[in-house]
Amino acid sequence: MWKLANDKKVLIIGLGLLGGSYAEGLTNLGYEVGAITRSPESIEYALDKGIIASGQTEVTEEYVKQFDLLVFCLYPHVFLDWLKQYQSFIKPGALLTDVTGVKRSIVYPVQAMLRDDLEFIGAHPMAGKEVYGVKNATSKMFSKANYIVTPTLKNTPEGIEACEELGRILGFRSVKRLSPEDHDEMIGFLSQLTHCIAVSLMVCKDSENLVDYTGDSFRDLTRIAKINETMWTELFYLNKDELLLQMELFSEKFDRLKEAIRTEDTETLHEIMKLSTQKRKLFDN
Amino acid sequence: MWKLANDKKVLIIGLGLLGGSYAEGLTNLGYEVGAITRSPESIEYALDKGIIASGQTEVTEEYVKQFDLLVFCLYPHVFLDWLKQYQSFIKPGALLTDVTGVKRSIVYPVQAMLRDDLEFIGAHPMAGKEVYGVKNATSKMFSKANYIVTPTLKNTPEGIEACEELGRILGFRSVKRLSPEDHDEMIGFLSQLTHCIAVSLMVCKDSENLVDYTGDSFRDLTRIAKINETMWTELFYLNKDELLLQMELFSEKFDRLKEAIRTEDTETLHEIMKLSTQKRKLFDN
Question: Per the CB 3.0–4.6 Å rule, which of A50, B6, B19, B252 could disulfide with B12?
């Protein structure tokens, strides 16, 4: 039975902001953490800071087969390619998880291709910063974030429990379970749609003239408009159907408000704003 | 020549969050501050806290005529009605200003109806909180906010200078001058459009199921979705032409992004996101 005791050895594949933060948190908890990542500087930095016990840029069977838990912190397509190429290196009985921000298009293909003696359970740590790389990594950023596990019928109760335990020991504010479908709908709305709105607002005007006058409203709405175009484009495509539905939903509401302003339909405007005020109160914390 | 020395007596008309914050700040600076407001409790509270030296709920000539500077902190239509009814009470040579969030539809009508021996100069302190009333008033909230003066050809250099001085002594982060037209375009975009976006996003879904999963993105984008429907509806109508233009502009950008996602037009997506990232950097502070 799979248990996340700290005699387990953990391999982080992709040592960036998230991977580095997992490594730091797990090392501090007494786990032996290794890393495979493309950049020698990242390995060097993480070894120097004591965030990892070992690391290399090459994927070798000798190295990979030591580990009991593998955490994939890669771009989605790189993750899928990695598994195709190297899953034969992985120790039988190992548990695999990830940090990818979309789930249907990852979880099902991975579980379909995976060796029978391995288990993959998808996870999405909803943590992020506007900075990148292992040098900005810190497990402190998990304390305000949610961690979502997306099990399927292919997962074992022990695998699910171990993956949830990982979120708990890393200090996430909450650990929840969702189906890949529910996850993708939720993330399409709460995260992908909000980024689309922020980006669209940010590119409306020449900002030079506006900086002097911006209050908190515009700053709040565009905080996430600094965006890694390669990663987000990939995530948008992998959740395209859901994201487009959420964008349509928003457009409908926005157009209804626009029409009410145009026709000075005070009753509708008051109704929308009261509903908005009432709904937002649920989020006060 | 009009100078804002602190032997001037200041009347606040409408003692809410903004009016109360002006009163508190000016009293602390040594000005004698009076107030007219509808609620006896607000007067009582402000007298008790020493924020005002005097105050009443009735508009009487005897009271109004003492004051050299009048600051109107009323809903736009209430402000216009007040002047029609009571401007005969005001001391000759007095200076009038306001805090209204739209300017063309206030400044020109007021200046057109005003007695020749009075001067009105529009101002917009871009400060606010999600709470209301004199009990939440504090001039501390000005330190992070901009103060915009919107003079016209009807204003005197002394009047403009006194109004700008008012913003400086109240501790605003910056004091700027804009035409009423430029002000309304700017505010239509930075403030009114952002509120329309936040409200539209907030009413998209049943939030109960989402609260557990929201990260900072959704919270940031909906912080201003708690909104006073009466005031904002009035402000939207008074700036309707500009607001609708800004809403159209946003819809265009949003639709372009949607289309690029739908057709997987990676080049366009990368271009938009890079532009967004570059523009947002100007706002880092």
Answer: B19
Q: How far is A61 from chain B (nearest CA, A)?
A: 36
Cβ pair A133, A166 in contact under 8 A = no
Gap between the Cα atoms of B203 and B263, Å rounded: 28
d(CA B115, CA B91): 11
Tens digit of each residue's pLDDT (9 = 90 or more) over A64-90: 999 999 999 999 999 999 999 999 999
Measured between beta carbons, which residues in chain A are less than 8 angstroms from residue B124? Answer: none
> In whole angstroms, what is the distance from residue B102 CA to residue B93 CA?
25
3-state secondary structure A210-223: CHHHCCHHHHHHHH
Q: Tokens 């980024």 map to which residue?
A: A195
Rounding to the nearest 10 degrees, give the CA dihedral for residues B187, B190, B192, B195. -160
Nearest to A109 by CA among A137, A72, A65, A79: A79
A chain contacts of residue B217, beta-carbon cutoff 8 Å: 190-191, 194-195, 198, 224
pTM attached to this predicted model: 0.89
**How far apart are alpha carbons B34 and B9 in whole angstroms?**
8
* Number of other CB atoms surrounding residue B177 within 10 Å: 13
Rounded to 5 degrees, what are φ and ψ at A83? -65, -45
Residues B46/B20, Cβ–Cβ less than 8 Å = yes
Least confident stretch, A121-125, A208-212, B100-104, B203-207: A208-212
3-state helix, strand, coil in chain A (%, to 5): 55, 15, 30
Could you give the ipTM of this predicted complex? 0.90
User: What CA–CA distances, in Å, run from B253 to A203, B259, B260, B272?
Assistant: 7, 10, 11, 9
- Under a CB-based contact definition with an 8 Å cutoff, are residues B20 and B137 in contact? yes
Whether B210 and A231 have beta carbons less than 8 Å apart is answered as no
Q: Is the CA virtual torsion A19, A20, A23, A28 positive or negative?
A: negative
Identify which of A211, A258, A283 has the shortest CB distance to residue B207.
Answer: A283
* Cross-chain residue pair A202–B281, CB shorter than 8 Å: no
